[in-house]
Amino acid sequence: MGQIVERGELAKVVAGWRAAGQMVTLANGCFDLLHVGHIRYLRGAKALGGKLIVAINSDKSVRKLKGPGRPAMPELERAEIISALECVDAVVIFDEPDVRALIREIKPNIQVKGTDYTCDSVPERDEVMAHGGRVEIVGDPKDHSTTELLGRIGK
């Protein structure tokens, strides 16, 4: 199980892992309502090796990305749920629309995205590659979505 780490403390945590010879993998998302697609994505990320950091969009960021009425759960609850997963080593909350700034701060060895992306379409790809990292696509086909799940629940 992981720990919820304040953004300002994350670089210190990562430095400690690196000093111990660990690789660092970064996954990110809203994780508004946890579903099987999220689990498969995070397990796939962890299977790449090293320590897994999951960056969760803040409530403000989710509203910008998903619209009014979202997120369904507040950021600290989403972070607590994700941090409880065995495959997750740390969770951090971020406000920006993407994780470029976070990538600059921690320089992950691997940035992981779900199958709704290709390695070439990942928005932060250039930032990852600029410091010698790589992008990997993991998880199952994009057959699950929180938006679709919320729509079914609302009916």
Topology, please?
Layout: E1 3-4, H1 7-19, E2 24-29, H2 36-47, E3 51-57, H3 59-66, H4 75-83, E4 90-94, H5 100-106, E5 110-113, H6 125-130, E6 134-137, H7 146-154
Characterization of this structure:
This protein is an alpha/beta fold and 155 residues long. Helices cover 41% and strands 18% of the residues. The protein contains seven helices and six strands. The chain has helices spanning 7-19, 36-47, 59-66, 75-83, 100-106, 125-130, 146-154, and strands at residues 3-4, 24-29, 51-57, 90-94, 110-113, 134-137. It has a six-stranded parallel beta sheet with strand order 1-4-3-2-5-6. Helix 6 links the parallel strand 5 and strand 6 (134-137). The longest helix has 13 residues, at 7-19. The radius of gyration is 15 Å and the shape is globular. The model has no long low-confidence stretch (mean pLDDT 91).
